[in-house]
Design goal:
With about 280 residues, the chain is an alpha/beta fold. Helices cover about 45% and strands about 20% of the residues. The N and C termini lie far apart (about 65 Å).
Length: about 280
């Protein structure tokens, strides 16, 4: 039994060493920085990638990734979380509609930033809310992610038809005042969202780990992204959001995310506490 425990400990140490080496290799070879991501979640995803690539060790995976850019592109789908729905957590979008939109109306033009947009579901959801509230015509939505595959899917605006029923329920529960079917065309097993939404969204590569602020915006929506960061990277991302927001701009986080105890908490006031919507404090 002692020998088995010792072997398990050696195996664990070996995995940790190979894990750190692979993360560093990815950073230096491809300039994607996962060094400050939450380790537990990233390790689980690495193990899934090992099974996909049929690699017995992370060293084997590293060899493949460093010598085959296509392999890294596939690995990136494992390292980035691509789980979302349109109008996910409908009460969040209802709060945007009822609490935030009345203040957004006071601006002659609007810019929004959806950070970590995945395949675009959140960006299209916000575009629909703003359309229904009469604000989309003067709005530009920046939707960013580090995964080029996800950005390409987001720009296409095409989703499996079997997901639409769930999207429709979420939209209705979010306070939608039209039919979701008004915004897409169904064909075969796909739903293609309308160009009238896409023309107000710019999909672009941006890393919260390495890139800087690129525009002043009235609303940042970054939902279910910070939970995958460690404290240092989370603080960096919140700093980017603060610097990007105009005075009294709004920040929306995921249902399991909070500014409580965060060093940047003093930069924001709670606006809709139960929906994790915050407002940037003005200069004193």
């Amino acid at each position: 039994m002692d020998a088995e425990i010792a072997a398990d400990e050696r195996s664990g140490r070996q995995f940790d060493i190979e894990f750190r080496l692979l993360i560093e290799a990815i950073y230096h070879m491809y300039h994607y920085d996962f060094r400050e991501y939450a380790c537990a979640s990233l390790r689980r995803r690495m193990k899934s990638a090992m099974r996909h690539f049929d690699c017995r060790s992370l060293s084997q995976l590293q060899d493949r990734v460093l010598h085959a850019p296509d392999a890294f592109a596939a690995l990136l789908d494992y390292l980035t979380v691509q789980v979302s729905d349109m109008f996910r957590d409908p009460s969040y979008y209802r709060a945007i509609r009822e609490k935030v939109v009345p203040l957004l109306r006071t601006y002659p033009s609007l810019k929004l930033w959806v950070a970590g947009c995945s395949a675009g579901e959140e960006a299209y959801s916000l575009a629909i809310v703003l359309h229904e509230e009469g604000l989309l015509d003067r709005t530009l939505i920046y939707a960013t992610d580090i995964n080029p595959h996800s950005l390409a899917r987001a720009a296409d605006g095409v989703y499996a038809i079997d997901r639409i029923a769930g999207f429709t329920v979420n939209h209705r529960n979010s306070g939608g005042n039209a039919s979701l079917s008004d915004y897409y065309t169904a064909a075969y097993d796909r739903a293609v969202f309308d160009k009238s939404l896409k023309q107000h969204i710019v999909f672009s590569d941006h890393s919260l780990a390495t890139d800087s602020v690129f525009s002043e915006v009235q609303l940042v929506s970054c939902r279910n992204v910070l939970i995958y960061f460690n404290h240092q990277l989370r603080d960096r991302a919140l700093g980017l959001f603060r610097d990007s927001l105009c005075h009294h701009g709004f920040l929306g986080l995921g249902s399991k995310e909070t500014l409580r105890f965060a060093p940047r908490a003093t930069d924001f006031d709670a606006f809709v506490t139960e929906e994790r919507i915050y407002q940037k404090r003005g200069q004193s």
